[in-house]
Amino acid sequence: MKNLINKAVKTNRLSHSEIVEILKDETCNEYLFKAADYVRKCRVGDAVHLRGLIEFTNVCGQNCLYCGIRRDNSLVERYIMTPEEIFETAKRAAGLGYKTVVLQSGETQTYSIDTLCEIIKKIKTLDIAVTLSIGEKNEDEYRALKDAGADRYLLRIETTSHKVYRELHPEMSLMKRKACLHFLKKLGYEVGTGDLIGLPHQKDEHIADDLLFFQEIDADMIGLGPFIPNSQTPLKDEIGGTFEKALKVMALARLLLPSANIPATTAMETLNPNGRLIALQSGANVVMPNVNDTTYRSKYQLYPGKICLDDGAEKCRKCIEAKILSIGRTIATTKGFRTK
Ligand code: SAH
Known about the structure:
Elements lengths: L1 H10 L4 H9 L4 H16 L2 E4 L1 E6 L25 H13 L4 E6 L7 H12 L4 E5 L5 H9 L4 E3 L7 H7 L5 H13 L3 E4 L2 E2 L6 H13 L4 E2 L2 E2 L16 H14 L9 H6 L3 H6 L5 E2 L6 H4 L15 H14 L3 E2 L9
Parallel strand pairs: 1-10, 1-11, 2-3, 3-4, 4-5, 5-6, 6-8, 7-9
């Protein structure tokens, strides 16, 4: 097993069956995490990129079975931030030293493309990078958003298994989601994708397919997290993913895509109080602290146990900075685009 991991460190390649073998093995996890940390250090360095996350509306037209803000969850109090509020939040983030803001939301037509473009253009005057995470749009819409100044786009594939995808995403299609990722690449965005680990009926073979898919599309960013069952969704009685498994998949992503930007995700911290620091020492080089006002945080709960619900943007910034410095890493001062 160690030979296989060493090979991946040198070549950044693993076959489907080799990935499955590593996923099923439980004896070499620490070795894998150390290998991913080594590749991270050599390829993207010690600086951690902080991206300020703005969850600007929880209104969603999709009905993903795992997600707390799915359309049919009537227990959620929906909110819509105004363009001014979104800009003010971005301005505060820039003031706190963030070089990127991530605008994330449910999938909704609440904001027209023109309105979104205006918001992006205004935020770009702050001289920071803008990442969008607002779901599926058509090619023309993605183009307009890019022309307005958006730099990056996050759209997790969630799973590349047709069977698992179909079961979890009523009215959606895996083909369409893949097409969106191709449009985004073609338009020149830095493209992020990723998956959920521990979905019902998901097998190690599917996860291996996912990892090879990230490599095939040459993902610039890869966001991975454990699936955490939400009591307000149809998947409330499922077991969900584990921290360790999500960490293994993340470490493998670092070996296969050595120069990608890989966040230590919030869902990992939900399952382990030191989750983000452990992830940063197992291949990750990005953290996405929330910069929203506390009034909105509790309303954007995709899964239970969301961290820092009562903390303001400033507190989150200081807290994560201290944690990062405590493990001998630094805070990046650049916008943090991928350098291959
Ligand atoms: N609507 C946007 C943003 C989705 S929210 C889009 O479609 O891309 C961001 C991510 O949260 C999702 O991609 C999903 O992977 C994750 N998520 C949703 N529900 C979750 C749950 N129960 N546990 C863990 N992660 C979840």
